[in-house]
Design a protein that fits this description.
295 residues; mainly alpha; ABC transporter involved in vitamin B12 uptake, BtuC; two-stranded antiparallel sheet; 11 helices
């Protein structure tokens, strides 16, 4: 195997891990609240701009700024669910085909993107951290330092999320609500508070993703649209509501992007991902790793 191919596989796995983590917030919100959040990519953009401006104004490393970004984005997500989404959920509780939430999150997506455009303009911004161009050598393979750091932080955060969902009383309440909200409510769980917390966690995860991307990806108001499409494809590939499926779907997309670039143009690689996405959607609508009970 050539050195270029090895590097493509390594970089594909690293970016795939970040992509999978990027989709976790989307699949968490859908799995618990049963809401498809069209503003997912816009929240990633908010996380990127927050990390970028912390770096510019205070010289705090984007990864260290996670200590500030995570609680800020959690509170943002909590209030979006509590103030905007909860009333629509209650009003559509008996509606057979509710579309109000879809329209609301789509409107939130447009609002956040255009607000960022109004405040910061359309220019691309980059954060030149001390490790932005740093490379590690593993044998004859060069590995991007910021991508490796982002991958490791993604794994660590996923582990923390797993412990929260599986080992804590709050996690049990979250999973119970995702499995059967009526039964959870009868057992004394405040399901709307759990919805608020779950949406807050999902948005906090987008904040982590945004900060992780800042050292090696340009920041601009419409950057979320790119990640929105990838996140939706990943959760459909892996299975809506499946956290393991999101991670594995991210690895698949990352490998196709990286390895495919060795044999075809970038546009063809993107087309190949869409073809696989459509095939999975047609042959297995629940996703390759979808299960009857995800939590």
């Amino acid at each position: 195997m050539s050195v270029a191919m090895k590097e493509s596989i390594f970089n594909g796995l690293l970016m795939g891990g970040v992509y999978g983590f990027m989709a976790l917030g989307l699949t968490l919100i859908f799995g618990i609240v049963k809401v498809i959040n069209f503003a997912h990519g816009s929240f990633i953009m908010v996380g990127m701009f927050t990390g970028y401006w912390f770096w510019v104004l205070t010289h705090i490393d984007p990864y260290l700024s996670l200590l500030i970004i995570v609680p800020l984005l959690f509170l943002l997500g909590y209030q979006v669910q509590n103030v905007l989404i909860k009333p629509v959920l209650k009003s559509e509780a008996e509606v057979r085909e509710p579309i109000g939430i879809l329209v609301l999150t789509a409107g939130l997506w447009l609002f956040l993107d255009n607000l960022a455009l109004l405040l910061f303009g359309p220019n691309f911004r980059t954060a030149e951290t001390p490790y932005t161009g740093q490379m590690f050598k593993a044998g004859d393979v060069l590995i991007s330092a910021p991508k490796l750091y982002a991958f490791l932080i993604s794994l660590a955060t996923t582990g923390i999320l797993y412990i929260l969902l599986k080992k804590t009383l709050l996690g049990k309440a979250i999973r119970a609500t995702g499995q059967n909200r009526q039964v959870a409510s009868l057992m004394g769980v405040d399901i709307y508070k759990i919805y608020n917390i779950s949406f807050g966690l999902g948005v906090a995860l987008t904040g982590v993703t945004g900060a992780l991307l800042v050292p090696f990806y340009p920041v601009y108001p419409n950057v979320g649209f790119v990640f929105d499409i990838r996140a939706f494809m990943i959760v459909v590939l892996g299975g809506l509501g499946s956290i393991p499926g999101a991670l594995l779907g991210g690895l698949i997309v990352g490998l196709i992007e990286s390895v495919g670039a060795q044999f075809m143009a970038t546009s063809w690689t993107a087309g190949l991902i869409f073809v696989i996405f459509l095939l999975v959607l047609y042959l297995r609508p629940e996703g390759m790793f979808g299960f009857k009970e995800e939590w």
